[in-house]
Amino acid sequence: MKDFVARWHLSAWDTGLMTATLELGSLIGALTAGVLTDKYSRRQSIVAACIVFCIGSALQFGAQNPGHLILGRGIGGLGVGALSMLSPLYMAEISPPEVRGSLMALEQFAIVLGAVLGFWTGFFTRDIEGSASWRIPLGIQLFPGFLLGFGCLALPPSPRLLVAQGRVDEALRALAKLRLRTSAESATDPLLQIEMLEMQVEAALVEQTAGSDGAHSVAKTGTLHAELHAWGRLFEPKLIRRTLIGVVMMVFQQWSGINALLYYGPTLMRSLGLQGDSVTLMSAGGIGIVQFFAVLPAIVFIDRLGRRPLLRWGSTTMALAHLLIALLVQRYSADWPAHAAAAWVSVACVYTFTAAYGMSYGPIGWILPSEVFPLSARSKGVALSTASNWVNNFLIGLLTPVFMERSPSGTFLVFASACALGYLWSTYFVPETANVSLEEMDAVFGSSAGREDVALKHQIEEDLGLHDLVRQWAREGTTTSGGSRDRRAD
Protein backbone atom coordinates (compact mmCIF):
# COMPACT_ATOMS: atom_id res chain seq x y z
CA MET A 1 0.00 0.00 0.00
CA LYS A 2 1.73 3.12 -1.29
CA ASP A 3 0.23 5.56 1.20
CA PHE A 4 1.26 3.39 4.17
CA VAL A 5 4.86 3.08 2.96
CA ALA A 6 5.14 6.77 2.04
CA ARG A 7 3.55 7.94 5.28
CA TRP A 8 5.59 6.00 7.84
CA HIS A 9 9.06 5.26 6.34
CA LEU A 10 9.54 2.17 8.50
CA SER A 11 12.91 0.45 8.85
CA ALA A 12 13.28 -3.33 8.86
CA TRP A 13 13.44 -3.23 12.66
CA ASP A 14 10.27 -1.09 12.88
CA THR A 15 8.46 -3.52 10.58
CA GLY A 16 9.55 -6.49 12.67
CA LEU A 17 8.61 -4.74 15.91
CA MET A 18 5.19 -3.80 14.56
CA THR A 19 4.55 -7.39 13.53
CA ALA A 20 6.02 -8.99 16.64
CA THR A 21 4.14 -6.73 19.07
CA LEU A 22 0.95 -8.57 18.21
CA GLU A 23 2.53 -11.91 19.16
CA LEU A 24 3.98 -10.54 22.39
CA GLY A 25 0.59 -9.14 23.35
CA SER A 26 -1.00 -12.45 22.43
CA LEU A 27 1.37 -14.34 24.71
CA ILE A 28 0.50 -12.08 27.64
CA GLY A 29 -3.19 -12.25 26.79
CA ALA A 30 -3.25 -16.05 26.67
CA LEU A 31 -1.49 -16.43 30.03
CA THR A 32 -3.63 -13.75 31.69
CA ALA A 33 -6.87 -15.22 30.36
CA GLY A 34 -5.93 -18.61 31.77
CA VAL A 35 -6.02 -17.12 35.27
CA LEU A 36 -9.06 -14.83 34.93
CA THR A 37 -11.36 -17.26 33.13
CA ASP A 38 -11.44 -19.70 36.07
CA LYS A 39 -12.08 -16.89 38.54
CA TYR A 40 -14.94 -15.31 36.60
CA SER A 41 -16.50 -17.04 33.59
CA ARG A 42 -15.71 -18.09 30.04
CA ARG A 43 -18.35 -15.83 28.49
CA GLN A 44 -17.41 -12.75 30.47
CA SER A 45 -13.75 -13.32 29.66
CA ILE A 46 -14.53 -13.69 25.94
CA VAL A 47 -16.57 -10.49 25.96
CA ALA A 48 -13.75 -8.67 27.80
CA ALA A 49 -11.21 -10.00 25.30
CA CYS A 50 -13.39 -8.76 22.42
CA ILE A 51 -13.53 -5.30 23.99
CA VAL A 52 -9.73 -5.23 24.34
CA PHE A 53 -9.34 -6.43 20.75
CA CYS A 54 -11.69 -3.75 19.45
CA ILE A 55 -9.79 -1.04 21.38
CA GLY A 56 -6.57 -2.18 19.74
CA SER A 57 -8.22 -2.33 16.31
CA ALA A 58 -9.64 1.18 16.76
CA LEU A 59 -6.18 2.52 17.64
CA GLN A 60 -4.75 0.97 14.49
CA PHE A 61 -7.64 2.26 12.39
CA GLY A 62 -7.16 5.82 13.61
CA ALA A 63 -3.34 5.75 13.88
CA GLN A 64 -1.58 9.09 13.38
CA ASN A 65 1.98 7.82 13.85
CA PRO A 66 3.83 4.46 14.01
CA GLY A 67 3.59 4.48 17.80
CA HIS A 68 -0.20 4.31 17.56
CA LEU A 69 0.06 1.32 15.23
CA ILE A 70 2.49 -0.51 17.50
CA LEU A 71 0.42 0.25 20.62
CA GLY A 72 -2.78 -0.78 18.84
CA ARG A 73 -1.26 -4.05 17.72
CA GLY A 74 0.00 -4.76 21.23
CA ILE A 75 -3.42 -4.10 22.78
CA GLY A 76 -5.16 -6.01 20.00
CA GLY A 77 -2.73 -8.85 20.62
CA LEU A 78 -3.89 -9.08 24.22
CA GLY A 79 -7.39 -9.76 22.93
CA VAL A 80 -6.22 -12.16 20.21
CA GLY A 81 -4.12 -14.17 22.67
CA ALA A 82 -6.94 -14.36 25.19
CA LEU A 83 -9.41 -15.46 22.52
CA SER A 84 -6.98 -18.05 21.16
CA MET A 85 -7.17 -19.72 24.56
CA LEU A 86 -10.76 -18.91 25.57
CA SER A 87 -12.64 -19.78 22.39
CA PRO A 88 -11.49 -23.39 22.01
CA LEU A 89 -11.78 -23.88 25.77
CA TYR A 90 -15.40 -22.69 25.80
CA MET A 91 -16.21 -24.69 22.65
CA ALA A 92 -14.79 -27.87 24.18
CA GLU A 93 -16.70 -27.38 27.43
CA ILE A 94 -20.14 -26.83 25.90
CA SER A 95 -19.90 -29.35 23.04
CA PRO A 96 -21.30 -32.90 23.17
CA PRO A 97 -18.45 -35.44 23.09
CA GLU A 98 -19.47 -36.84 19.72
CA VAL A 99 -18.96 -33.52 17.87
CA ARG A 100 -16.19 -31.94 19.94
CA GLY A 101 -13.38 -33.07 17.66
CA SER A 102 -15.16 -31.85 14.54
CA LEU A 103 -15.72 -28.45 16.08
CA MET A 104 -12.06 -28.11 16.98
CA ALA A 105 -11.08 -29.03 13.43
CA LEU A 106 -13.51 -26.45 12.09
CA GLU A 107 -11.87 -23.84 14.32
CA GLN A 108 -8.52 -24.41 12.59
CA PHE A 109 -10.33 -24.27 9.27
CA ALA A 110 -11.89 -20.94 10.24
CA ILE A 111 -8.51 -19.52 11.30
CA VAL A 112 -7.05 -20.22 7.86
CA LEU A 113 -10.18 -18.83 6.18
CA GLY A 114 -9.84 -15.62 8.18
CA ALA A 115 -6.21 -15.27 7.13
CA VAL A 116 -7.18 -15.70 3.46
CA LEU A 117 -10.00 -13.15 3.67
CA GLY A 118 -7.77 -10.68 5.50
CA PHE A 119 -5.05 -10.89 2.89
CA TRP A 120 -7.36 -10.44 -0.08
CA THR A 121 -9.19 -7.56 1.59
CA GLY A 122 -5.87 -5.74 1.72
CA PHE A 123 -5.16 -6.73 -1.86
CA PHE A 124 -8.37 -5.20 -3.21
CA THR A 125 -8.06 -1.97 -1.19
CA ARG A 126 -4.39 -1.32 -1.93
CA ASP A 127 -5.03 1.08 -4.85
CA ILE A 128 -7.53 3.30 -3.04
CA GLU A 129 -6.23 6.85 -2.73
CA GLY A 130 -4.94 8.07 0.62
CA SER A 131 -4.94 6.35 3.98
CA ALA A 132 -8.24 4.57 3.25
CA SER A 133 -6.21 1.91 1.45
CA TRP A 134 -4.92 0.59 4.78
CA ARG A 135 -7.47 2.01 7.23
CA ILE A 136 -10.33 0.04 5.65
CA PRO A 137 -8.77 -3.40 6.28
CA LEU A 138 -7.84 -2.37 9.82
CA GLY A 139 -11.35 -1.07 10.45
CA ILE A 140 -13.12 -4.12 9.05
CA GLN A 141 -11.66 -6.29 11.80
CA LEU A 142 -13.81 -4.40 14.31
CA PHE A 143 -16.97 -6.09 12.98
CA PRO A 144 -16.09 -9.72 13.86
CA GLY A 145 -14.95 -8.43 17.26
CA PHE A 146 -18.35 -6.81 17.85
CA LEU A 147 -20.17 -9.86 16.48
CA LEU A 148 -18.35 -12.30 18.75
CA GLY A 149 -18.69 -10.09 21.81
CA PHE A 150 -22.43 -9.48 21.46
CA GLY A 151 -23.06 -13.06 20.31
CA CYS A 152 -21.53 -14.44 23.49
CA LEU A 153 -24.11 -12.58 25.56
CA ALA A 154 -26.79 -14.88 24.15
CA LEU A 155 -24.85 -18.07 24.96
CA PRO A 156 -25.24 -20.04 28.19
CA PRO A 157 -22.37 -20.21 30.67
CA SER A 158 -19.97 -23.15 30.67
CA PRO A 159 -21.55 -25.93 32.75
CA ARG A 160 -18.12 -27.40 33.51
CA LEU A 161 -16.89 -24.17 35.05
CA LEU A 162 -20.08 -23.89 37.10
CA VAL A 163 -19.51 -27.42 38.39
CA ALA A 164 -15.91 -26.57 39.27
CA GLN A 165 -17.23 -23.56 41.21
CA GLY A 166 -19.72 -25.75 43.10
CA ARG A 167 -22.80 -24.28 41.36
CA VAL A 168 -24.26 -27.64 40.30
CA ASP A 169 -27.91 -26.51 39.92
CA GLU A 170 -26.90 -23.65 37.63
CA ALA A 171 -24.69 -26.02 35.70
CA LEU A 172 -27.59 -28.43 35.14
CA ARG A 173 -29.79 -25.61 33.83
CA ALA A 174 -27.02 -24.45 31.48
CA LEU A 175 -26.44 -28.00 30.24
CA ALA A 176 -30.15 -28.49 29.66
CA LYS A 177 -30.23 -25.34 27.53
CA LEU A 178 -27.23 -26.50 25.51
CA ARG A 179 -28.80 -29.93 24.94
CA LEU A 180 -32.19 -28.41 24.10
CA ARG A 181 -33.95 -29.82 27.18
CA THR A 182 -36.56 -28.11 29.35
CA SER A 183 -36.11 -27.57 33.08
CA ALA A 184 -38.58 -30.38 33.78
CA GLU A 185 -36.72 -32.78 31.49
CA SER A 186 -33.37 -31.95 33.09
CA ALA A 187 -34.47 -33.61 36.34
CA THR A 188 -35.44 -36.91 34.69
CA ASP A 189 -33.35 -37.21 31.50
CA PRO A 190 -30.81 -40.00 32.21
CA LEU A 191 -28.36 -38.87 29.52
CA LEU A 192 -28.33 -35.36 30.96
CA GLN A 193 -27.88 -36.71 34.49
CA ILE A 194 -24.99 -38.93 33.40
CA GLU A 195 -23.26 -36.08 31.57
CA MET A 196 -23.64 -33.86 34.62
CA LEU A 197 -22.17 -36.52 36.89
CA GLU A 198 -19.24 -36.96 34.46
CA MET A 199 -18.55 -33.23 34.77
CA GLN A 200 -18.60 -33.53 38.56
CA VAL A 201 -16.19 -36.46 38.34
CA GLU A 202 -13.83 -34.46 36.14
CA ALA A 203 -13.91 -31.46 38.49
CA ALA A 204 -13.26 -33.65 41.53
CA LEU A 205 -10.41 -35.44 39.76
CA VAL A 206 -8.65 -32.21 38.83
CA GLU A 207 -9.12 -30.80 42.34
CA GLN A 208 -7.85 -33.90 44.13
CA THR A 209 -4.90 -34.38 41.77
CA ALA A 210 -3.85 -30.74 42.02
CA GLY A 211 -4.27 -30.36 45.76
CA SER A 212 -3.56 -33.73 47.36
CA ASP A 213 -0.24 -34.89 45.96
CA GLY A 214 2.31 -35.84 48.62
CA ALA A 215 3.88 -32.88 50.36
CA HIS A 216 1.55 -30.52 48.59
CA SER A 217 -1.58 -31.97 50.18
CA VAL A 218 -1.78 -29.04 52.54
CA ALA A 219 -2.15 -26.61 49.65
CA LYS A 220 -5.72 -25.44 49.31
CA THR A 221 -7.11 -25.63 45.82
CA GLY A 222 -7.17 -22.23 44.16
CA THR A 223 -4.28 -20.85 46.19
CA LEU A 224 -0.99 -19.74 44.69
CA HIS A 225 0.70 -22.77 46.26
CA ALA A 226 -1.70 -25.19 44.57
CA GLU A 227 -1.47 -23.33 41.26
CA LEU A 228 2.31 -23.46 41.25
CA HIS A 229 2.21 -27.13 42.12
CA ALA A 230 -0.16 -27.82 39.22
CA TRP A 231 2.25 -26.14 36.80
CA GLY A 232 5.22 -27.84 38.45
CA ARG A 233 3.74 -31.29 37.76
CA LEU A 234 4.48 -30.75 34.07
CA PHE A 235 8.20 -30.89 34.82
CA GLU A 236 8.14 -33.96 37.04
CA PRO A 237 9.88 -37.07 35.62
CA LYS A 238 6.63 -38.82 34.67
CA LEU A 239 5.37 -35.86 32.60
CA ILE A 240 8.49 -34.03 31.39
CA ARG A 241 8.71 -35.95 28.10
CA ARG A 242 5.08 -35.15 27.29
CA THR A 243 5.65 -31.50 28.17
CA LEU A 244 8.67 -31.31 25.88
CA ILE A 245 6.69 -32.84 23.02
CA GLY A 246 3.97 -30.19 23.34
CA VAL A 247 6.42 -27.29 23.68
CA VAL A 248 8.89 -28.43 20.99
CA MET A 249 6.07 -29.20 18.56
CA MET A 250 5.17 -25.52 18.63
CA VAL A 251 8.82 -24.53 18.19
CA PHE A 252 9.11 -26.50 14.97
CA GLN A 253 5.67 -25.40 13.80
CA GLN A 254 6.71 -21.75 13.90
CA TRP A 255 10.32 -22.14 12.75
CA SER A 256 9.18 -24.14 9.73
CA GLY A 257 8.61 -20.66 8.28
CA ILE A 258 4.84 -20.64 7.74
CA ASN A 259 4.10 -17.39 9.56
CA ALA A 260 7.11 -15.71 7.97
CA LEU A 261 5.46 -16.44 4.62
CA LEU A 262 2.07 -15.21 5.83
CA TYR A 263 3.43 -12.03 7.44
CA TYR A 264 5.99 -11.13 4.81
CA GLY A 265 4.67 -12.94 1.74
CA PRO A 266 5.07 -9.99 -0.67
CA THR A 267 8.58 -9.24 0.65
CA LEU A 268 9.62 -12.85 0.26
CA MET A 269 8.13 -13.03 -3.22
CA ARG A 270 10.10 -9.98 -4.30
CA SER A 271 13.25 -11.68 -3.01
CA LEU A 272 12.41 -14.53 -5.38
CA GLY A 273 12.48 -12.20 -8.36
CA LEU A 274 8.78 -11.57 -9.04
CA GLN A 275 8.19 -8.11 -10.47
CA GLY A 276 5.19 -5.81 -10.05
CA ASP A 277 2.89 -5.38 -7.06
CA SER A 278 -0.03 -7.35 -8.53
CA VAL A 279 2.06 -10.41 -9.38
CA THR A 280 3.80 -10.34 -6.02
CA LEU A 281 0.63 -9.89 -3.99
CA MET A 282 -1.32 -12.51 -5.90
CA SER A 283 1.52 -15.01 -5.57
CA ALA A 284 1.73 -14.35 -1.83
CA GLY A 285 -2.06 -14.52 -1.50
CA GLY A 286 -1.94 -17.96 -3.05
CA ILE A 287 -0.04 -19.15 0.04
CA GLY A 288 -3.13 -18.72 2.19
CA ILE A 289 -5.38 -20.36 -0.40
CA VAL A 290 -3.09 -23.40 -0.71
CA GLN A 291 -3.01 -23.78 3.06
CA PHE A 292 -6.80 -23.45 3.18
CA PHE A 293 -7.31 -26.40 0.83
CA ALA A 294 -4.44 -28.44 2.31
CA VAL A 295 -6.15 -28.54 5.71
CA LEU A 296 -9.17 -30.38 4.27
CA PRO A 297 -7.53 -33.76 3.54
CA ALA A 298 -5.67 -33.56 6.84
CA ILE A 299 -9.00 -33.40 8.70
CA VAL A 300 -10.16 -36.56 6.90
CA PHE A 301 -6.99 -38.68 6.96
CA ILE A 302 -5.03 -37.59 10.03
CA ASP A 303 -6.34 -40.45 12.20
CA ARG A 304 -5.97 -43.04 9.45
CA LEU A 305 -2.39 -42.19 8.50
CA GLY A 306 -1.10 -41.33 11.98
CA ARG A 307 0.80 -38.37 13.40
CA ARG A 308 4.42 -39.49 12.97
CA PRO A 309 4.25 -40.39 9.26
CA LEU A 310 2.65 -37.04 8.48
CA LEU A 311 5.21 -35.15 10.57
CA ARG A 312 8.11 -36.98 8.90
CA TRP A 313 6.72 -36.57 5.39
CA GLY A 314 5.90 -32.91 6.05
CA SER A 315 9.35 -32.21 7.51
CA THR A 316 11.11 -33.79 4.53
CA THR A 317 9.01 -31.98 1.93
CA MET A 318 9.30 -28.61 3.66
CA ALA A 319 13.05 -28.92 4.19
CA LEU A 320 13.67 -29.80 0.53
CA ALA A 321 11.43 -26.95 -0.65
CA HIS A 322 13.27 -24.39 1.51
CA LEU A 323 16.66 -25.78 0.48
CA LEU A 324 15.86 -25.51 -3.22
CA ILE A 325 14.60 -21.94 -2.75
CA ALA A 326 17.79 -21.00 -0.90
CA LEU A 327 19.94 -22.42 -3.70
CA LEU A 328 17.95 -20.64 -6.40
CA VAL A 329 18.07 -17.33 -4.54
CA GLN A 330 21.82 -17.68 -3.99
CA ARG A 331 22.42 -18.52 -7.64
CA TYR A 332 20.05 -16.18 -9.51
CA SER A 333 19.10 -13.29 -7.21
CA ALA A 334 21.63 -10.97 -8.87
CA ASP A 335 19.73 -11.17 -12.18
CA TRP A 336 16.18 -12.48 -11.70
CA PRO A 337 14.76 -10.90 -14.90
CA ALA A 338 17.07 -13.11 -16.97
CA HIS A 339 15.98 -16.21 -15.04
CA ALA A 340 12.19 -15.97 -14.83
CA ALA A 341 11.82 -19.76 -14.87
CA ALA A 342 13.95 -20.05 -11.73
CA ALA A 343 11.79 -17.45 -10.01
CA TRP A 344 8.61 -19.38 -10.78
CA VAL A 345 10.20 -22.64 -9.64
CA SER A 346 10.89 -20.88 -6.33
CA VAL A 347 7.24 -19.85 -6.10
CA ALA A 348 6.20 -23.46 -6.80
CA CYS A 349 8.46 -24.54 -3.95
CA VAL A 350 6.76 -22.03 -1.65
CA TYR A 351 3.37 -23.49 -2.56
CA THR A 352 4.70 -27.04 -2.09
CA PHE A 353 5.98 -26.10 1.34
CA THR A 354 2.61 -24.56 2.25
CA ALA A 355 0.66 -27.65 1.18
CA ALA A 356 2.99 -29.91 3.17
CA TYR A 357 2.62 -27.67 6.22
CA GLY A 358 -1.17 -27.62 5.94
CA MET A 359 -1.28 -31.43 6.01
CA SER A 360 1.30 -31.94 8.76
CA TYR A 361 2.67 -29.31 11.14
CA GLY A 362 -0.42 -27.09 10.87
CA PRO A 363 -3.11 -29.37 12.35
CA ILE A 364 -0.81 -31.73 14.28
CA GLY A 365 0.73 -28.78 16.12
CA TRP A 366 -2.60 -28.28 17.87
CA ILE A 367 -3.70 -31.92 18.10
CA LEU A 368 -0.55 -33.47 19.60
CA PRO A 369 -0.45 -31.43 22.85
CA SER A 370 -4.07 -32.30 23.56
CA GLU A 371 -3.35 -36.03 23.25
CA VAL A 372 -0.16 -36.62 25.19
CA PHE A 373 -1.14 -35.27 28.63
CA PRO A 374 -3.21 -37.16 31.21
CA LEU A 375 -6.53 -35.62 32.15
CA SER A 376 -5.38 -33.89 35.33
CA ALA A 377 -2.49 -32.11 33.56
CA ARG A 378 -4.06 -31.52 30.15
CA SER A 379 -5.23 -27.91 30.59
CA LYS A 380 -1.88 -26.76 31.96
CA GLY A 381 0.06 -28.75 29.37
CA VAL A 382 -1.91 -27.34 26.47
CA ALA A 383 -1.59 -23.83 27.92
CA LEU A 384 2.20 -24.16 28.16
CA SER A 385 2.35 -25.49 24.59
CA THR A 386 0.25 -22.56 23.39
CA ALA A 387 2.60 -20.15 25.18
CA SER A 388 5.49 -21.76 23.29
CA ASN A 389 3.62 -21.08 20.06
CA TRP A 390 3.21 -17.38 20.80
CA VAL A 391 6.81 -16.92 21.98
CA ASN A 392 8.19 -18.42 18.77
CA ASN A 393 5.58 -16.57 16.72
CA PHE A 394 6.89 -13.37 18.31
CA LEU A 395 10.49 -14.23 17.43
CA ILE A 396 9.56 -15.06 13.82
CA GLY A 397 7.74 -11.76 13.39
CA LEU A 398 10.60 -9.80 14.94
CA LEU A 399 13.53 -11.46 13.19
CA THR A 400 12.29 -12.34 9.70
CA PRO A 401 12.63 -8.84 8.18
CA VAL A 402 16.10 -8.52 9.67
CA PHE A 403 17.08 -11.92 8.28
CA MET A 404 15.67 -11.03 4.87
CA GLU A 405 17.57 -7.74 4.82
CA ARG A 406 20.82 -9.50 5.66
CA SER A 407 20.48 -12.61 3.47
CA PRO A 408 17.31 -13.90 1.76
CA SER A 409 18.96 -17.22 0.90
CA GLY A 410 20.21 -17.55 4.47
CA THR A 411 16.67 -17.01 5.75
CA PHE A 412 15.39 -19.97 3.76
CA LEU A 413 18.35 -22.06 4.94
CA VAL A 414 17.35 -21.33 8.55
CA PHE A 415 13.84 -22.61 7.84
CA ALA A 416 15.23 -25.65 5.95
CA SER A 417 17.45 -26.50 8.93
CA ALA A 418 14.50 -26.23 11.32
CA CYS A 419 12.44 -28.59 9.16
CA ALA A 420 15.34 -31.06 8.96
CA LEU A 421 15.65 -31.02 12.74
CA GLY A 422 11.90 -31.50 12.91
CA TYR A 423 12.29 -34.70 10.90
CA LEU A 424 14.88 -36.07 13.33
CA TRP A 425 12.75 -35.02 16.31
CA SER A 426 9.57 -36.63 14.96
CA THR A 427 11.48 -39.80 14.06
CA TYR A 428 13.31 -40.39 17.34
CA PHE A 429 11.35 -38.54 20.04
CA VAL A 430 7.66 -38.44 19.07
CA PRO A 431 5.58 -41.57 19.69
CA GLU A 432 2.55 -42.41 17.60
CA THR A 433 -0.56 -41.16 19.43
CA ALA A 434 -3.28 -41.74 16.83
CA ASN A 435 -6.07 -43.94 18.24
CA VAL A 436 -4.13 -44.50 21.49
CA SER A 437 -6.22 -44.58 24.66
CA LEU A 438 -5.20 -42.96 27.94
CA GLU A 439 -4.11 -46.31 29.39
CA GLU A 440 -2.05 -47.14 26.29
CA MET A 441 -0.47 -43.65 26.38
CA ASP A 442 1.22 -44.63 29.66
CA ALA A 443 2.88 -47.59 27.95
CA VAL A 444 4.00 -45.29 25.12
CA PHE A 445 5.70 -42.91 27.54
CA GLY A 446 6.72 -45.44 30.20
CA SER A 447 4.77 -43.53 32.85
CA SER A 448 2.01 -44.28 35.35
CA ALA A 449 0.46 -40.79 35.30
CA GLY A 450 -2.56 -41.82 33.25
CA ARG A 451 -3.22 -45.02 35.21
CA GLU A 452 -3.17 -43.07 38.47
CA ASP A 453 -5.76 -40.67 37.03
CA VAL A 454 -7.93 -43.58 35.83
CA ALA A 455 -7.90 -45.28 39.24
CA LEU A 456 -8.77 -42.04 41.02
CA LYS A 457 -11.48 -41.26 38.49
CA HIS A 458 -13.06 -44.70 38.97
CA GLN A 459 -13.24 -44.15 42.74
CA ILE A 460 -14.80 -40.70 42.32
CA GLU A 461 -17.39 -42.12 39.91
CA GLU A 462 -18.37 -44.70 42.54
CA ASP A 463 -18.56 -42.06 45.27
CA LEU A 464 -20.78 -39.74 43.20
CA GLY A 465 -23.09 -42.59 42.13
CA LEU A 466 -22.36 -42.47 38.40
CA HIS A 467 -22.00 -46.25 38.10
CA ASP A 468 -25.23 -46.79 40.06
CA LEU A 469 -27.08 -44.42 37.72
CA VAL A 470 -25.78 -46.20 34.63
CA ARG A 471 -26.74 -49.62 36.05
CA GLN A 472 -30.20 -48.33 36.97
CA TRP A 473 -30.70 -46.90 33.50
CA ALA A 474 -29.55 -50.19 31.95
CA ARG A 475 -32.04 -52.17 34.11
CA GLU A 476 -34.88 -49.83 33.19
CA GLY A 477 -33.96 -50.16 29.51
CA THR A 478 -33.92 -53.96 29.80
CA THR A 479 -37.29 -53.97 31.60
CA THR A 480 -38.84 -51.69 28.99
CA SER A 481 -37.45 -53.83 26.17
CA GLY A 482 -38.76 -57.03 27.80
CA GLY A 483 -42.19 -55.51 28.33
CA SER A 484 -42.36 -54.49 24.70
CA ARG A 485 -41.55 -58.04 23.58
CA ASP A 486 -44.23 -59.47 25.88
CA ARG A 487 -46.84 -57.10 24.44
CA ARG A 488 -45.86 -58.06 20.89
CA ALA A 489 -46.15 -61.78 21.82
CA ASP A 490 -49.66 -61.21 23.19
UniProtKB/TrEMBL annotation:
Q: Which Gene3D superfamilies match?
A: MFS general substrate transporter like domains (1.20.1250.20)
UniProt subcellular location = Membrane
Record domain Major facilitator superfamily (MFS) profile: where:
1-434
Q: Does the keyword Acetylation apply?
A: no
MF GO annotations:
carbohydrate:proton symporter activity
Keywords from the UniProt entry: Membrane, Transmembrane, Transmembrane helix, Transport
Q: Is Cell inner membrane one of the keywords?
A: no
Database matches in InterPro entries = MFS_dom (IPR020846), MFS_sugar_transport-like (IPR005828), MFS_Sugar_Transporters (IPR050360), MFS_trans_sf (IPR036259), Sugar/inositol_transpt (IPR003663), Sugar_transporter_CS (IPR005829)
Q: How does it sit in the membrane?
A: Multi-pass membrane protein
Superkingdom, taxonomy of origin: Eukaryota
Query: Its catalytic activity?
Result: myo-inositol(out) + H(+)(out) = myo-inositol(in) + H(+)(in)
Q: Where are the transmembrane segments?
A: 12-33, 45-63, 69-91, 103-124, 136-155, 243-264, 284-303, 310-329, 341-361, 382-404, 410-431
Q: Name one GO cellular component term.
A: membrane
Q: Tell me which family the UniProt entry assigns to this protein.
A: Belongs to the major facilitator superfamily. Sugar transporter (TC 2.A.1.1) family.
Q: What is this protein called?
A: General substrate transporter
